[in-house]
Design a protein that fits this description.
The protein is of the alpha/beta class and about 350 residues long. Helix content is about 45%, strand content about 20%. The protein has a 6-stranded mixed sheet with strand order 2-1-3-11-4-12, with helices on both faces. A 6-stranded mixed sheet has the order 7-8-6-9-5-10.
Length: about 350
């Protein structure tokens, strides 16, 4: 009898070992990734190129580059599972998390400050924009909230009505669907324009009279102790729960891609890749834009600290910018990628 009990106990122990091994083993899976054809997509071109040949393999990556005006389509695709990972503006990530009760989690920051104020007439301080007109893009996204924050900190108000009479401390801010349209309006009507990379470099190239009047990141640092974060990578929560190791492997590959692009020795190849994937029309513009694009892949506790700080600033400035409340700790998926 005792022998039978011992054998049964041993048999059950072996079953448990096999069960635990089966549970811990993660099946290979293809990861579908969506990025915008703007600064948040620049860091993805190397990994997209390397994985394009094996996009259909069990553990390959399939990239889709969306037009910058298609943020809503990109967000819908990450929620409905068409995409597993997406690059989005930081405020859009928080808003999506809040509105969907946690259907996405942020896994990395991929773009820091990428904006510049461009004009032909020098200004001494940011407050000198008083009474001026700014042509820009990114309404209801991080550019709008960053501009409003900086104007407010410098004693100015943003007025978006093109026909409104400006008050003493007002700045007229006109929004356009993309950087190209904003640049054209600025060229035609004068004033100033706030653009991200690579649109900044394109504007400087098109007209030698254009110059960077203010580096927005530098202006941000004057009035805020929080790191300026503009873009993040988010994962579909269901996918992340099922394939955590695959996401970790992806993040390592994405970080390698970012490091490749930021390496000046690879500038020519990186520029060609950005043209190939439709982010920039010409390689010389892409090449010159890289150094100002603040392309990163920051994960883990540093990512959480940076994003939390940025969302706190946005929430205090305009709660609706992050979906009405700051996300809780479940918003953050912590991967320490070396």
């Amino acid at each position: 009898m005792k022998t039978r009990i011992r054998l049964l106990t041993l048999f059950l122990a072996i079953l448990m070992v096999f069960a635990m091994t089966a549970c811990s083993k993660e099946e290979a899976t293809r990861i579908n990734v969506g990025v915008l054809k703007g600064p948040t997509g620049m860091g993805a071109v190397k990994i997209a190129k390397d994985s394009s040949a094996s996009a259909e393999s069990p553990d390959g990556y399939s990239f889709t580059f969306y037009e910058t005006a298609d943020v809503s389509k990109l967000t819908n695709d990450i929620i409905n599972g068409t995409l597993d990972i997406a690059a989005l503006p930081v405020n859009a990530c928080a808003t999506l998390y809040n509105k969907t009760n946690g259907k996405v989690k942020v896994i990395a920051t991929n773009a820091l400050g990428v904006l510049s104020v461009i004009g032909t007439e020098e200004l001494t301080s940011f407050s000198d924009l008083r009474g001026k007109t700014i042509h820009t893009t990114g309404q209801a996204s991080t550019p709008e909230y960053i501009i409003n924050f900086l104007l407010s900190k410098n004693g100015l108000n943003a007025v978006t009505d093109e026909n409104a009479v400006l008050g003493e401390n007002d700045v007229r801010v006109i929004y356009y669907p993309d950087g190209t349209t904003a640049t054209s309006a600025y060229t035609l009507n004068g004033g100033y324009t706030v653009l991200p990379e690579p649109a900044t470099t394109a504007a400087l190239t098109q007209n030698s009279a254009n110059k960077i009047i203010f580096n927005v990141t530098e202006e941000w640092n004057k009035v805020s102790e929080t790191k300026l974060v503009q873009g993040c990578l988010v994962a579909n929560s269901d996918f992340l729960e099922k394939y955590p190791k695959a996401v970790e492997k992806f993040l390592q590959s994405y970080k390698d891609s970012v490091e490749y692009i930021n390496n000046s020795e690879n500038a020519d190849d990186s520029a060609q890749l950005m043209v190939e994937f439709g982010i920039v029309p010409k390689a010389p513009i892409a090449k010159n834009a890289i150094s100002r694009a603040n392309i990163v892949c920051i994960t883990g506790s540093e990512m959480k600290s940076d994003v939390t700080g940025m969302l706190n600033v946005l929430f205090d400035s305009d709660a609706s910018s992050v979906g009405g409340k700051e996300p809780d700790d479940n918003f953050y998926a912590i991967y320490e990628i070396s």
